[in-house]
Amino acid sequence: MAPQLGKRKRVTREELERPSPAPSPSSGSDNEDMQALFRRAFEKKFKPLDVEPKKPETKEAPATEEDAEDAEDAEDDDDESDWSGLSDDVSNKVEVIEYKDATYDSDEEASKAAKRAFMSSKPPTTAAPARGRIVGEKKTADADDTGESANLKNDLALQRLLRDSHLLSASSSGASTPTLTTSGAARHKSTDLHLQSLGAKGSVFTQKKMPMAQRKHMAQKARSSEEKRRHEAREAGIILEKEKREATKDKDKKRERGVGGPSIGKFRGGTLSLSRKDVRSITGGPGSRGGKGGKGKGKPRR
Amino acid sequence: MAVDEALQQPLNFTGHRHLISRLLLATLTGRPVRISQIRSTSTNPGLTRYETNFVRLLDAVTNGGQVQFSMTGTTLVYRPGLITGSAEGLGAHGGVIRHEIPRECARRGVSWWLVPLCILSPFSKGNVNVILHGEGCVTSSTTSGDISADTVRTAILPLYKSFGIERNIELRILKRSCAPATGKSAGGEVQLVFNHQVRLPKTLHLLNPGRVKKIRGVAYCVEVPKSNNERMIHEARGILNKFVPDTYIFSDASPAPLIPTVQKGHGSGKVKGAVGFGLSLVAESSTGCIYSADVCSPPEGGVPADEIGKQCAYQLLEKISQGGAVESVAAPTVLMLMAMGSEDVGRVALGKDVLASEEIISLARDSKVFGGSGWGFRENGGEEDRGEIVVSVVGRGVGNVGRKVA
């Protein structure tokens, strides 16, 4: 191709894609004949080529495009359109090769239970699918609302209602319509009661930190109000529940637990004094449980 | 019985082939054996390291046995003892026997030890709890044809259920390892818990192989990227999903086990064990029959994961095409348990290719030598004849000597 000066030539796509030493000579018809000759010679020697004659289409498609735009580059276009190495039909169509098919990349979806059942150290059992059926049956049993499970549910609701009844009466006293379900602060209290009934150490609503005087005053107030209630009840002839004995003395009886302290007895004034009980606990002799000896006398020592 | 044993003349066998099955039969029947001419013409005569190591394991789980090797190791006299399992005071610590497999035994996979141990376990007096560990403990499948520990768990152990042995059986793979190249070590660790001992295994009647209904599998990789697992799984599912839609393969990636070393240049005093990846597939039929396939990357590497997945899937299809209710890997276990069962005729349908293997034929002959009755063969007739042979085995009726009253 002759180098051009002056006007900047439009670089077409065909030009870029074409290999730099153009294999085809410029005259179109000669070239065709030559190729046919070569092919015939080749086919005679080897097996027939399966190249279809696609020349006519490739020649027309670029010509229509370029005639409008590059009218002045007519002589260049001639040899451009002669070149038949790449056809537009093929290059326009983008071949898509997918290395992944979406049909089965879903091993993650295999349920965790299935994975656990199979990957555990135990030999996998064949009974795994039966579990799903049982779940289905349970659902059907629940649906009819008359079975054992429904009874159990109602029972639980009733117990809960009984437990919360005093909270409900307190909270809904002001409201016009009393409700059967607790809400707000009452719900919190109800949960707290439930926790305590299940064995919580104490209520979560008891204040933990408080000035000592205030706590003492509170205890005193509680005691006095309780006493007052009992006194009034006694005067009115009402029998109340039995009074709870408070084990306040236990604190004083507590054993010394300092480091280096004796594990038994009391260390006071440089002497370790053992009570009778302590001695008994060491010797394990008679009467460690019973009264004043006697009873355990006949027992053989081990 | 002790008097009998002293008087009993040992049964004579020759050759190194079927050593394991002969030792197992000897232990289960209580007959002493004398195996001579073990690789006597080989340039490396005598028992190999892994064979002597197995005898060691046998010694660990039994009590009162006697083993004598000749000077060259070409002759072995074995007088079996009572199978005591992991009884305290006989090599077990805390109820667990720790059995080390040294590096020289790394040619065989751990299943080579595990499968015979599983056969002994139901006839043990006490519980069996054995940890196999060491530099030669390879949990993956090996090129010498041993199956992986996963396949033992998913394809061999479920078979015991049909013999009424199903409770408290576990196989824990504590550390995974692949087959090492020469001079390297593996370092896997496997624990077998077999706490269901029986007086006699139930009589088995397994005539209908059924149709394969589900396929499960484990893809494992040791110290190599997890993408290898995904590629194996993808390739295997691509082949198998067409036949069985209920195909799930689970992936397990683990680091290489650390092996203590005294070599210089390792600051931590530890080296990593062998690396690799592999796939274990298990197909289960509608009647509970199991077929398995196992392929692992070779120690020298160079095989892409896709290829392993494809090979494994084709191997599974081949196993299924062989037919029968029991596949070739599991057949020795099943037949041996049947031979040790109650005095009743058990029947099992086997594919012709499975039955015609050298291992099964020699097992049949050996079990006759050990005092069992001969096995009966007949064509599996019926409307859907798939070219199977029904093998009828009469049990010995002795069963578990340690559990006479159970």
Describe the structure.
The complex is a heterodimer of chains A (302) and B (406). In chain A, a hairpin with a 2-residue loop joins β1 (266-268) and β2. Chain A is mainly α and 302 residues long. Chain A has a domain at 53-84. Chain A has a two-stranded antiparallel ribbon with strand order 1-2. Chain A has helices at 13-17, 28-45, 55-69, 74-82, 88-92, 112-119, 130-143, 148-171, 185-197, 212-236, 250-253, 276-283, and strands spanning 266-268, 271-273. Chain A is built from twelve helices and two strands. Mean pLDDT of chain A is 70; it is low at 21-26, 55-77, 128-138 and 290-299. With 406 residues, chain B is an alpha+beta fold. Among the domains of chain B are: 1-81; 212-321, Dihydrodipicolinate Reductase, domain 2, CATH 3.30.360.20. Chain B is built from ten helices and 20 strands. Chain B has a four-stranded mixed sheet with strand order 1-2-5-4, covered by helices on one side. A four-stranded mixed sheet of chain B has the order 7-8-10-9, covered by helices on one side. In chain B, strands 11-18-20-19 form a four-stranded mixed sheet. In chain B, a hairpin with a 6-residue loop joins β4 (66-69) and β5 (76-79). In chain B, α6 (227-240) packs parallel to α7 (305-322) and α8 (331-339) runs parallel beside α10 (358-369). Chain B: This is 18S rRNA biogenesis protein. Chain B: It comes from Macroventuria anomochaeta.
What is the fold's blueprint, element by element?
The complex is a heterodimer of chains A (302) and B (406).
Chain A: H1 13-17, H2 28-45, H3 55-69, H4 74-82, H5 88-92, H6 112-119, H7 130-143, H8 148-171, H9 185-197, H10 212-236, H11 250-253, E1 266-268, E2 271-273, H12 276-283
Antiparallel strand pairs in A: 1-2
Chain B: H1 2-7, E1 11-14, H2 19-29, E2 33-36, H3 49-61, E3 62-63, E4 66-69, E5 76-79, E6 82-83, E7 97-100, H4 111-120, E8 128-133, H5 149-156, E9 169-175, E10 189-194, E11 205-206, E12 212-222, H6 227-240, E13 247-254, E14 258-260, E15 270-272, E16 276-285, E17 290-296, H7 305-322, H8 331-339, E18 345-351, H9 352-355, H10 358-369, E19 376-379, E20 388-394
Parallel strand pairs in B: 1-2, 7-8, 11-18, 12-13
Antiparallel strand pairs in B: 2-5, 3-6, 4-5, 8-10, 9-10, 12-16, 14-15, 16-17, 18-20, 19-20
Helix pairs in contact in B: 6-7, 8-10
